[in-house]
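User: Run a structure prediction on this.
Assistant: Running it now.
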Amino acid sequence: MTGAVVGLDIGGTKTAAALVGPGGDVLERRQVPTPARSGPAAVLDTAARLAADLLDAAGPGPVGVGTAGTVDPATGTIRYATDSLPGWTGTPVVDALAGRLGRSVRVTNDVNAAALGECWVGAARDCRDVLLVAVGTGLGAAIVRDGRVEAGARGAAGEIAHLPAPGAQRLRCGCGRYGHLEAIASGTGVAAAYALATGTRLTGRTVAERAAAGDIVARQVLDRAGTALGTALAGLVALLDPQAVLVAGGAAGGLLPAGSAAYSAELPAGWADVPLRPAALGPDAVVVGAARLAMDTQE
């Protein structure tokens, strides 16, 4: 199909590929578990195989990729990645996939890709300047300026996880230090706070389910996490001056009620019209945004 582009989403749990039309609609989709423990070559082989299944129906342009990890914007190599993808740090994603597919490749971090997708056909389609925060196992963010990702000097602009956060002093961040926003406002943070309060270790998802079922401690944990997130986002609005703030990710739902209240209470008057919205594209956000990245290359 002329004008269609293939977008890839490479994560620690699953790898997905989609054929995305020129209007942002997902025409075909493929998804398999990521063979993370088998090493980077196996991960790249899997991604290339999924993309190759869709290339015949795509136009002749680049393939777009959203991947876990921090991406060097100059080389398309992974500068840093967590243990969810062992050995992924240092992987030359652009060159390796281009060699496998015989196509040029554009790559960015998966949260950046999700933000591009939301700005194109999602919850921020009316905006050119957006802050997107992804609340999952960890905490990530992306900044879109004039419709394009703000990468920063090292490809890591928007990493809000390590901002100091009141209430997180006894909670350990994924970086190993204490007191950071990710340590309280993430699935891992919610689980750790519940364990600290009760002595019971559960997943963040289960804590959210218990809160919905009436567990008072679980509700308090989620409310503290949401308040910390909403307060931080209000401050970031004053710093970054976006048109909208989006909250995405599997752990976002449990934090949004308290998060929205704190955001509204703390938002400076000069930015009172900046909305806080839930993201809209769900699991398709990264592949759609990766396709948008590839299309931007052709324009």
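The longest strand covers residues 26-33.
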